[in-house]
Write a structure and sequence with these properties.
The chain is built from 13 helices and 13 strands. It is of the alpha+beta class and 381 residues long. It has a single domain, classed as Alpha-Beta Complex (Nucleoside Triphosphate Pyrophosphohydrolase). Helix 5 crosses helix 6 and helix 12 packs antiparallel against helix 13. The N and C termini lie far apart (58 Å).
Length: 381
């Protein structure tokens, strides 16, 4: 009976097909794993080779994520944990009556320990702080220079960018420790920092050890530089910012698709931490009108520190589904676009095109824009 089965042509054909399918699957898995490994190795070499952008833009790469941290199986590898170290500066008491009380609930300063440590080293900067406090609050009263409302923000207390998962994949991990602050405090400290040559005019880039110390009182913004991919046309979106947007100095700078600060709107009440993926989705919806259902993938490419504005940032890539087109996006009316964005443009997803664009727009694009596009060219394509 067994001999008859083994010699039956149909059985032989079926078994051969099954063994062939299994063998092909083994080959495919091995090949895909090899290709992925080669790509990761190639990208790591490319990152080491192309570091000139840091000196050009005064941006420190805290960690390149190779491979990227995505929102599927890797989302647990990027976390922002809130520490009980709030930092709030109160408005001058003689100007309180001219302010919206709901936006400025603080009547007294709430200062972290590292505030005292820093100003022991730089006591002369305290006078600059009081002058800046009055200067910035007058901008809020006049709704001038981007000071339209005092939103709650997160500052970065400490970054741990070099961790890896303990499994054989050794995937990159990022752990940020953040603190509660607000936009007013952020603007005041940015103004004070400009009066301290060591922080504003220093030629060498800040080290992670310095940033994780008392200088973290100036790290009071965590920003997202989001590059949106249009799958329908194989392009990415770049934007002209509105001249009246914050930090624009009246100029329509080139930015990436979306530039957004992480805020209390991104707090995950279930896990008691900041949801960075939700922060990305919120920025897309508020500035471009992109809905969650239209997103195919979110990938974090790198963590960086912007020495010009003393801000932490993350380079993020968002791939849209093919149903979303540029014509469609231009006809949408998201709530923040009039204040933040004046024009939408596209660039081909091509390394040569991106390199040429970065070279041509060195004078009318913000440093984080040039850095983000360079990072995308080296890690995201």
């Amino acid at each position: 009976m067994l001999a008859e089965l083994l010699t039956n042509p149909l059985v032989t054909l079926f078994v051969g097909a099954m063994l062939g399918a299994v063998a092909q699957r083994i080959v495919d898995v091995g090949w895909n794993s090899t290709v992925r490994s080669l790509r990761v190795t190639s990208k790591r070499k490319r990152v080491r080779r192309e570091r000139g952008i840091e000196e050009q833009t005064r941006i420190t790469t805290l960690a390149p994520f190779v491979p990227p941290i995505d929102w599927s199986d890797n989302r647990e590898n990027i976390k922002a944990v809130i520490r009980p170290r709030p930092f709030f500066l109160a408005p001058p008491k003689d100007l309180l009556s001219k302010l919206d009380v709901s936006q400025f609930p603080q009547r007294d300063d709430v200062l972290p320990e590292n505030f005292e440590l820093f100003f022991q080293e730089w006591p002369e900067a305290l006078e600059a702080l009081e002058a800046a406090r009055r200067e910035i609050i007058l901008q809020f009263i006049a709704a001038d220079a981007g000071a339209h409302f005092n939103g709650r923000k997160y500052g970065v207390l400490r970054a741990r960018p070099y961790e890896r998962t303990v499994d054989v994949a050794e995937l990159p991990k990022l752990r940020l420790e953040v603190y509660d602050t607000d936009y007013f405090t952020q603007r005041v400290m940015d103004r004070v920092r400009r009066e301290i040559p060591e922080l504003h005019e220093r030629r060498t880039l800040q080290t992670l050890e310095e940033l994780n110390g008392p200088r973290s009182i100036f790290r009071n913004a965590l920003g997202l530089s989001v590059i949106v991919e249009l799958s329908s046309t194989d392009e990415i979106i770049v934007t002209r910012r509105a001249p009246g947007a914050a930090y624009s100095d009246g100029k329509a700078w080139w930015y990436v698709s979306v530039t957004e600060a992480v805020s209390q709107s991104d707090f995950d009440s279930q896990h008691k931490e900041v949801d960075l993926f939700d922060a990305v989705r919120r920025g897309l919806q508020e500035e471009l009108g992109i809905e969650r259902s239209e997103i195919a993938e979110i990938r974090f490419l790198s963590a960086f520190f912007e020495n010009n504005f003393f801000q932490d940032g993350l380079v993020v890539v968002v791939e849209l589904k093919e149903s979303v087109t540029m014509t469609d996006l231009k006809n949408r009316f998201p709530k923040d676009r009039p204040m933040e964005v004046s024009q939408l443009h596209t660039l081909k997803r091509n390394p040569t095109v991106l390199r040429k664009w970065v070279e041509e727009h060195a004078d009318d694009a913000r440093p984080q824009t040039l850095y983000a596009l360079h990072t995308y060219r080296t890690l995201g394509l």
